[in-house]
From TrEMBL:
CDD domains in UniProt: WHTH_GntR (cd07377)
InterPro entries to which the protein is assigned, alphabetical: GntR_C, TF_FadR/GntR_C, Tscrpt_reg_HTH_GntR, WH-like_DNA-bd_sf, WH_DNA-bd_sf
Superkingdom of the source species: Bacteria
Species this protein is from: Pseudomonas typographi
Domain HTH gntR-type: start-end pairs: 20-87
Keyword Transcription attributed: yes
Protein name as catalogued: GntR family transcriptional regulator
Keywords: DNA-binding, Transcription, Transcription regulation
Keyword Transcription: yes
Transmembrane segments: none
Length: 231
């Protein structure tokens, strides 16, 4: 009987990587495979297998996996090592509440510094969202819209935390938007938020963002509750 190919080896092609680029390349390739669903939740991602696959020592692999764990894409499980993290965890409500605080602060800092190109980027994302039918693209465009409005906040650590949260949400939405029935529901929210930001009305923009994210929290929580009852 032929030896079964592991999920990681089936997705990631073997090749020799330059030692000085190994960590960043391995991190990027695993991240992309997780985000596009090629490596599903629960898949074991083993250091030695990756080191062998790419012809490098375990050190750059270990660093790449640590970065992915910090980004919430991998979990370390006893006796199994690194595994692909769930699309969304049981503490989704707490995570969303934290996101509301972080994103509201980023918007507050960013709105006074936004320029026409930032507004145009957000406007294009909305226009594409209204036409898009591919759920993967919709999740990506949603993230682009929000980061266009947050991007001028002069706090790099805050923006990195927010981007990680949006990336986690993007990964969840691309696989669940259809079942959640959320395809076209948020564009009015987005347009009102963009209009307030264009006017430089920080309190209104922050209020609209908070309402928008609270609706998202309700939708995600309701969906997870339904899935629990089905199980």
């Amino acid at each position: 009987m032929p030896k079964k190919t592991s999920p990681v080896r089936a997705v990631l092609l073997a090749e020799q990587l330059p030692a000085h680029l190994a960590r960043s390349i391995i991190e990027e390739r695993i991240r992309n495979a997780i985000l596009d669903g090629s490596l599903p939740t629960g898949t074991a991602v083993r250091q030695q297998e990756l080191a062998t696959l790419y012809g490098v020592s375990r050190m750059p692999v270990r660093e790449a996996l640590r970065q992915l764990e910090a980004q919430g894409l991998l979990n370390v499980v006893q006796h199994k090592g690194a595994v692909v993290a769930p699309l969304i965890t049981d503490d989704a409500a707490e995570t969303y509440s934290l996101r509301i605080l972080l994103e509201a602060e980023a918007l507050r800092l960013s709105v006074p510094r936004l320029e026409s190109q930032d507004f145009n980027t957000a406007e294009r994302a909305i226009a594409q969202l209204e036409l898009e039918e591919d759920f993967t693209a919709m999740a990506r465009l949603n993230r682009e819209f929000h980061m266009a409005l947050y991007g001028k906040a002069a706090n790099g650590r805050l923006l990195r935390l927010i981007d990680a949260g949006l990336e986690e949400e993007e990964r969840f939405l691309r696989f669940n938007l259809h079942d959640m029935g959320l395809g076209r529901t948020s564009q009015d929210d987005h347009r009102q938020l963009l209009a307030a930001a264009r006017e430089g009305d920080v309190p209104s923009a922050v209020g609209l963002l908070t309402q928008h994210l609270q609706r998202g929290l309700h939708a995600v929580s309701s969906y997870l509750t339904q899935q629990t009852h089905k199980a």
